Every structure is written in structure tokens, then in C-alpha cells.
Amino acid sequence: MITLWELKGKGERRYSLFSWRTRMALKHKRLDFTTQPVCLSDKAAIAFSGGRTVPIIRDGETVVRDSWKIAEHLEERYRDAPALFGGDIGRGVSQAFNAWVDRAVVPAMLSVIAADIHERVDPADEEYFRSSIEKALKTSLEQTRSERDDALRRLGRTLEPMQAALKRQPCVCGRAPAYADYILFSVFQWARVMSPHEVLGPEDPLCAWRERLLDLFDGFARNAPVA
Ligand SMILES: N[C@@H](CCC(=O)N[C@@H](CS)C(=O)NCC(=O)O)C(=O)O
Q1: 28 and 104 together in one domain
Q2: What is the pLDDT of residues 101-123, one digit of tens each?
């Protein structure tokens, strides 16, 4: 049995976007797992991993931290289960896509939903979250709320390449979803779990794609507690 350490928010919300990549990868590989929800500020709870971030998994005797390394571990150890990358080229392209999502899409989404996240983190994390996010964004949470419409427009512009791609093929990985889909999906699931606002228009090709991802594994992500 695999154990996944992830963040806990108010009302059983599981809001770590990187952990959503791992959750979807574990389901894709048809692996059973249990979760260990932890607070963002509780570094003692995850000190065993040698780092300060989740996701972390324990798979038998092996501890792996970092969503990308976890995906590589699962692909390597569970070769007979459905592929996350589809070979070396797929692994390389997925890693490049991971970097683009982390550096372009995640910050664009954070500016849209930061204040909503703050309202839904565990009460023990409110101060920690505010100070780290205000430092990262170089502005106050209140200011992000008042500039939300601009942030939403910036997010839309950042996502244009994916809108074009998803007009041509149903998934990021082509015909069927795999790890690169989960990389992008994690950002929308983060918003879905922590913000009451919709970030996609109904006509957006990303909207239909997100619905397909929400349906996977008997509605695994759809049935998660949300804002
Ligand atoms: N590159 C890492 C990033 C992990 C990460 O930043 N996780 C966040 C939660 S989504 C975290 O644990 N942050 C700890 C902190 O801000 O103190 C990965 O892909 O796993």
C-alpha cells in the first residue's frame, strides 16, 4: 500500500496542486493508496522526507518527494500498468511541459485565486500562507482580490496555446489522458477545490477537456470536496 502526504484545507479539502498530479498518476496506474493530510506550516510532520514540500509518497521502503520524481518512480516501478509518459520521448516532452505549467500557468492562476485559497486553508496555516504568498506575489491578498479581473485576463492569455491544442486533439497527450494532462489539470483542480469562482468560459475547449478529466476513474476528482 502506498501512502501520500498532501495538504489539508478546511472541510476535508485536499488542495495541494502538485499532490493532485500524484493522485491522478496513482489512479492512472490503478494503485491503491491512503493519504496523510498535513498542514502547510507543519514541517515536522514531513521532516522524514528530508524536504519541506508535499507531495511525498512512501511506497514500501521507498520515500519519494516531488511530484515529478514520484511520476518517474511510478512509471519505473509499475511498468505493466498504463503508461504515464509513453517512452523516453514522452517523458522528455512531459518534463518540458511540467516546467512550462509550473512557471507560467501556476503563477497566473495563483494571482486569480490566492485570496480564495487563504479563506479555505487550515486555520493553523492562515498566517503562514498569507506571508509566503504576499512575499511571492509582492502584493497583499486584498490587492489580488481587487485586481482579479486583470489576473483572469492574464491567465486566459497564458492558456491560449492550450486552447489551440485542445481544438485539434481531445487531450494534452493526444487521444487519451496521461501524465501531461494531469500536470495541467492539477492547476484547475486547485482552483476548483479552493475557489468558488469559475475560471473557464463554457465555450473554452479547456472546459470540455476538464470535464473529461473530472469524469476519469469514476469521477475521482469530481467527487473531491470543493469550495
Ligand atoms: N516541485 C515540487 C513543488 C511542491 C510544492 O511546492 N508543494 C507545496 C504545496 S502544493 C508545498 O508543499 N509548499 C510548502 C511551503 O510552501 O512551505 C513538486 O512538484 O512536488
Answers
A1: no
A2: 999 999 999 999 999 999 999 99
Q: Does 97 lie in the same domain as 72?
A: no
Q: What separation in Å is there between the alpha carbon of 154 and the centre of ligand 1?
A: 23
CATH number of the domain where residue 180 is located: 1.20.1050.10
pTM of the model: 0.98
From the CA of 22, give the closest atom in ligand 1. Answer: 20
Ligand 1 centroid to 54 CA: how many Å? Answer: 5
Residue 223's pLDDT band (cuts 50, 70, 90): very high
Nearest alpha carbon to residue 206 among 176, 167, 175, 179: 167
CA distance 112 to 18: 18
Please check whether residues 193 and 115 belong to one and the same domain. Answer: yes
Q: Is 67 in the pocket of ligand 1 (CB under 6 A)?
A: yes
Determine the Cα angle at 144 with ends 142 and 147, to 5°: 115
**pLDDT category, 46, cuts 50, 70, 90?**
very high
